[in-house]
């Protein structure tokens, strides 16, 4: 007889044909196992069993739907953090007259009225390292009419008047920590506002698998996804102002800012129509993720600046389903 508490097996009897299945008592908890290695091993077996059961149930439901055909009930919408989002009272209604009036008179109105052409200055923190330098160079190939200048101990308060005098419409500052880009300051000139983002997941072109050829000089299309609140609307309009208003569709290039759970994912692609229904895309890079830290009125002023919005983690992040953009 076996010593593990299972059924006895006689000598010479054929082994059971059913696959081995982990059977846990109803009140069993893996955390009760004292041995760390054994606890980790049992946890992995339990997770594997859960995945198998989930896949089996999925196959069963699919067969039932195929058997019912047109009489099959509609598929249930899965619950996600995104679609269970807590309603925000500042969510923008496209037909709201007040929002339309604010957009017609805000700092970005001259761009959307085609009165100004974007001209961008990209700079860095003092004494940037190689990775930050390469990122700025690649970012300048994505944003048309952008120029890269490297700071050498010059304060931002002195840079901004020079930018205004040279007709720059926006200033981008890439900050770094331990040789890795970790922050982005975007200031709309000449009257602001200024947004401070935390930057993460930066990938240069050579680090992207199956990347396409170098981007061309054509003006890309811009896609802004899921900027629904008043704050998100302002940030989205601010990002749109970096690109000329009239894209050159012949280049087949598109820059995407996708907001999901207040994280702004940037991707740069080239697309091609393979047929009437199929489209192929190639990522050109670079890619990065932004998280808004603050939105400040006017141009950059760290001491006396008036802030429209500041992310206060302990006060604002009380619910995982509460988003601000």
UniProtKB/TrEMBL annotation:
Pfam families in alphabetical order: Brix
Keywords recorded for this protein, A-Z: Ribosome biogenesis, rRNA processing
Domain of life: Eukaryota
Main location: nucleus
Domain Brix intervals: 118-301
Claim: rRNA processing is one of the keywords in the record: yes
GO molecular function annotation: rRNA primary transcript binding
Any Gene Ontology CC annotation: nucleolus
Entry function: May be required for ribosome biogenesis.
Protein name in UniProt: Ribosome production factor 1
Organism the protein comes from: Caloenas nicobarica (Nicobar pigeon)
